Amino acid sequence: METWGSFVDVKINAPEVLQRQMKNAPRGNVMISSVTDPYQPIEKQFKITRRCLEVLLAYQFPVSILTKSSLVLRDLDLVKKFKEIEVGITITTDDDKIRQIFEPNAPSIETRIHALKELSENGIKTYAFIGPLLPLNPETLAEKIRPFIQSVLIDRMNYASKTRKIYEFRKMKQWLEYDFVDEIIERLEIGFAEKEVSIC
């Protein structure tokens, strides 16, 4: 049995299946993707996301991309051709040491902010997804990403029971307290006062 997180099953026929579905699909926004990051490292090899974007572009379906990876910049040539598209970058903290604890194999915070900057400077509608909200300095994070986004989506740590030991070991268990996190969210809202802010 393979250990969870140690393997990826690639749906290599996804672009062909999408092409068949598009012929009769009612027009609607397509999200790429809310569960699995569409720009995992293996995407460099298989280019499944890029090929799906090519199919969607041919039909000019509205698209929303959400990723933690700067690999999305590889497909900027396609992204710029869509009439309706937005790209979100998941940024859970402003502190790369915290990122290394909770997201050890994910791109650095600096890399993600750079991706937002590049997208924004190329005229792409961008947003940040702060979720799950990890220990951070809300003012610092807001200052770093505010110039490069139009909106922000904030979500709490939804499965605190699965991460409680990490928080307790690192002496950060206040980040599991509802009132404490509420205060952090309020400070984020102030930091993004001129942006559209949504709280999950």
Shape: globular
- Using the coordinates above, name the CATH class: Alpha Beta
Specify Rg, calculated over alpha carbons.
18 Å
Query: Which consecutive residue ranges, at least 5 long each, have pLDDT under 50?
Result: none
> Structural class, judged by helices and strands?
alpha/beta
Main sheet strand line-up = 1-2-3-4-5-6
How far apart the termini lie comes to: 35 Å
Amount of helix: 40-55%
State the total count of DSSP E strands. Answer: 6
Number of helices: 9
- In CATH terms, what is the architecture? Alpha-Beta Horseshoe
What does this structure look like?
It is globular, with a radius of gyration of 18 Å. The chain contains nine helices and six strands; from the N terminus they run H-E-H-H-E-H-E-H-H-E-H-E-H-H-E. It starts with 13 loop residues before the first helix and ends with a strand. It has 200 residues and is of the alpha/beta class. It has one domain (14-199): pyruvate-formate lyase- activating enzyme (Alpha-Beta Horseshoe), CATH 3.80.30. A six-stranded parallel sheet has the order 1-2-3-4-5-6, covered by helices on one side. Helix 1 packs parallel to helix 3. It has helices spanning 14-22, 43-46, 48-59, 76-79, 96-102, 109-121, 138-145, 160-169, 178-191, and strands at 30-32, 63-67, 85-90, 125-130, 151-154, 196-199.
Concise description?
The protein has 200 residues and is an alpha/beta fold.
